[in-house]
Fold this sequence. Notes:
The chain has a seven-stranded mixed sheet with strand order 1-2-3-4-5-7-6, with helices on both faces. It has helices at 8-19, 85-99, 114-119, and strands at 2-6, 39-45, 48-57, 68-76, 104-110, 123-131, 135-143. It has three helices and seven strands. The two termini are 25 Å apart. By secondary structure, it is an alpha+beta fold.
Amino acid sequence: MEVLRIKASDTYPIRHKMLRHNGTVEDCIFNSDNDELTFHLGAFVDKKLVSVASFYFERHLSFSDTYQYRLRGMATLPEYQGKGLSSALLKTAFPVIKQNQCTLLWCNAREKAMGFYTQVGFHATGELFSVPQIGKHRLMSITIE
């Protein structure tokens, strides 16, 4: 397994298949995908892209940290889940986030993924909320040290 920086467009097929399969590929293009401080990571197994995550310099008002990153669009193909790929993406992202003077990473975690996020050190904030056509989510964050 190898983790590399990838282009936003490289994330779209996996985002579509795993996160927005009821919509179109265009639904998988996020507004800040090509911002200067945004970065995308991919995990490759045998040179095949199998897991993706995107990181956006974006502040959530629920947190007092001045500089924050948002994790969005993390997804792993089914046959590669449970093999530590998402954890590897996060471990690769943490130093980049810290280098950008940020102390917090947050995400809107899908209800079914909350166990994973808790396992890797994220903490839940607030109540579950519903995202139309996607499902229940909860705000979660982790301090970057």
